[in-house]
Write a structure and sequence with these properties.
Elements: E1 5-8, H1 12-24, E2 30-33, E3 44-48, H2 54-60, E4 64-68, E5 71-74, E6 79-82, E7 86-90, H3 91-99, E8 104-107, E9 114-115, E10 119-122, E11 125-128, E12 131-134, E13 144-158, E14 168-171, E15 180-187, E16 192-201, H4 208-222, E17 226-242, H5 244-251, E18 256-257, H6 273-285, H7 290-307, H8 309-320, H9 327-334, H10 339-347, H11 352-359, H12 367-370, H13 377-381
Parallel strand pairs: 1-2, 1-12, 2-8, 5-14, 12-18
Antiparallel strand pairs: 3-7, 4-7, 5-6, 9-10, 10-11, 13-16, 13-17, 14-15, 15-16
Helix pairs in contact: 1-6
The chain binds flavin-adenine dinucleotide.
Length: 384
């Protein structure tokens, strides 16, 4: 096969690109190469309904594992049910969808040892294509300064119905530890429950067993007993400062970076599905060479990084303007804001009025602590 498009990595960003390109350019030969032996069962990719356009709801529908009406947040001083629907995809569903998509060839066990703007090299095999996209997952960049969202999730089959009827996006009534701590619950059935313990922390070190024990304690506290069926963990970047133009200047001349390695994620949550869907539309509408796609993706990414400046400021106030044990107060205040604003926040579509609304009123942190957080340039200077 001589492909029109090589997608290096068959993770989330490239999966969405494959779906969008296959639909927009029927007949295009898309080759996806991934070193993993098969679809990941160590992921659930969730999103809020308003995060995605209708075309993406339609495209992803066959890969949805579970869908819910509404979601909850819980804080020591208030709790709230939010109306927005929520849904989760998994690796198996996404791989099934790709395998059924005409034009897409998915090769597992395909470790790429060299990648450039016109080819991918595997063990003893070189494959050429006019367009090469690099979606091989997160890669550290000195142009992106981050805090961390660290988590461990354990999926349980409970011995009896657990009684959770909708996703609990944040249960921050738990003792605060290692920064802002909350538990996230996804009820996949009346007895199947994902319990995830999350920390917004300064350091990237993840003590998986300690978090797993904290999850077991949380379950015991709720009176749930059952057995573990699956586990996932992650250390996601929370963007504090981003020199996007420098990142893209370094990538010039190579394959087109996408996904986490291109800094394309929601700065505050570290989630990337909505951004990946938007970027997949950009790729599908761009030309068919690496240079054309690079130019379109770069322009979109730079515009986005500019728009995200405000979210990075919020992160700096959360991580640098607030002692770790007080971070939950900022989030608690945020979740008292009007629901449409919260929905636009997750979708990355805050208006000017929304931004004003977030920072006015009783400040989440004292002004004197907020002032040193205003500029992001000093953080970038610190990077080697
Ligand atoms: C456990 C977990 C849960 C998450 N949950 C959510 C969520 O609910 N919602 C959300 O929006 N975001 C979520 N995220 C954050 C983010 O969306 C994911 O990390 C997402 O998978 C990133 O997409 P990506 O395409 O950039 O990278 P990945 O999905 O990580 O894909 C990279 C792929 O490249 C392959 N690869 C790497 N190197 C090579 C190589 N040399 N040769 C061949 N293949 C290679 C890997 O095997 C992998 O399949 C989660 C992250 C984690 C870790």
């Amino acid at each position: 096969m001589s492909p029109d498009l090589i997608l290096a990595g068959a993770g989330l960003a490239n999966a969405l690109i494959a779906l969008a390109v296959a639909e927009r350019r029927p007949g295009a030969r898309i080759l996806m190469l991934d070193r993993a032996p098969g679809p990941s069962d160590s992921h659930t990719w969730s999103f809020h309904d308003p995060d995605l356009r209708l075309s993406w709801h339609r495209r992803l529908a066959p890969a949805i594992r579970c869908r819910w009406q509404g979601q909850e947040v819980r804080f020591p001083d208030h709790a709230r049910t939010l109306r927005a629907g929520y849904a989760s995809l998994d690796g198996a569903g996404l791989a099934r969808l790709l395998e059924e998509t005409p034009g897409v060839t998915l090769r597992w066990n395909a470790e790429i040892t060299k990648l450039d703007s016109g080819s991918a090299t595997l063990d003893g095999e070189r494959i050429e294509a006019p367009c090469v996209i690099d979606g091989r997952g997160a890669a550290p960049s000195r142009h992106l300064v981050t805090g961390y969202q660290k988590f461990v999730g354990v999926e349980f089959e409970m011995d009896a119905p657990h009684g959770v009827t909708r996703p609990v996006i944040m249960d921050a009534t738990v003792p605060q530890q290692d920064g802002y701590r909350f538990v996230y619950l996804l009820p996949f059935s009346t007895t199947r429950l994902l319990i995830e313990d999350t920390r917004y922390s300064d350091g990237a070190a993840l003590d998986e067993e300690a978090l797993a024990r904290a999850i077991a304690d949380y379950a015991t506290d709720k009176g749930w007993t059952g057995h573990e069926v699956r586990r996932e963990h992650g250390v996601l970047p929370i963007a504090l400062a981003h020199a996007a133009a420098r990142l893209w200047a370094e990538a010039q001349g190579g394959p087109v970076p996408v996904g986490m390695r291109a800094g394309l994620f929601h700065p505050v949550t570290g989630y990337s599905l909505p951004v990946a869907a938007q970027m997949a539309d950009v790729v599908a509408a761009a030309g068919s060479t690496t240079a054309e796609v690079f130019a379109a993706v770069r322009a979109h990414a730079l515009a986005r990084a500019g728009d995200d400046r405000f979210l990075r400021l919020l992160n700096r106030m959360l991580f640098h303007g607030c002692p770790p044990e007080h971070r939950h107060r900022v989030l608690s205040r945020f979740y008292r804001l009007p629901e449409p604003l919260i929905e636009r926040f997750y979708a990355g579509k805050l208006t000017r009025m929304d931004r004003l609304r977030i920072v006015t009123g009783k400040p989440p942190i004292p002004i004197r602590d907020a002032l040193p957080c205003l500029r992001e340039a000093p953080l970038l200077k610190e990077t080697p």
